[in-house]
Design goal:
56% of the residues lie in helices and 10% in strands. Helix 5 packs across helix 6. With 144 residues, the protein is α/β, with parallel strands linked by helices. It contains seven helices and four strands; from the N terminus they run βααβααβααβα.
Length: 144
Amino acid sequence: MSTPAPPDRFVLDGSVTLAWLFHDEADPYADAIVAKLPALEMLVPCLWHLEIANVLLVGERRGRSSQADTTSWLSYLSGLPIVVDGATEARAWTDTLNLARQLGLTAYDAAYLELALREGVPLATLDAKLRAAAQTVGVPLYQP
């Protein structure tokens, strides 16, 4: 009997997650990632939960979604194979800040890139600036 292939492992950024949540932000790249579930291990920095919560809250305030939608989406996300990085905080004032300075990123976006660099895994993002920064430092983009 053969052993199953290990799951694809990569850093998931908020832009891909939000493409799953809001119909008007749907994207074929994001959809291709969802199609590979559950054979994935998606790494996120500890700020990911706050980023997603804030976007959902703003979506409610702008009438893009309801509180019930938010509850449903959070339930969906909590069931995904997402692993929260425990070292994001310890690197925020060093590696992450330096990457943000070097590449003209926000500290938030640099946290995703720092995690991908440190773990040696690809990055899944729809953010053009973050994609370009990843290419600059040699982090491959995840290919579903």
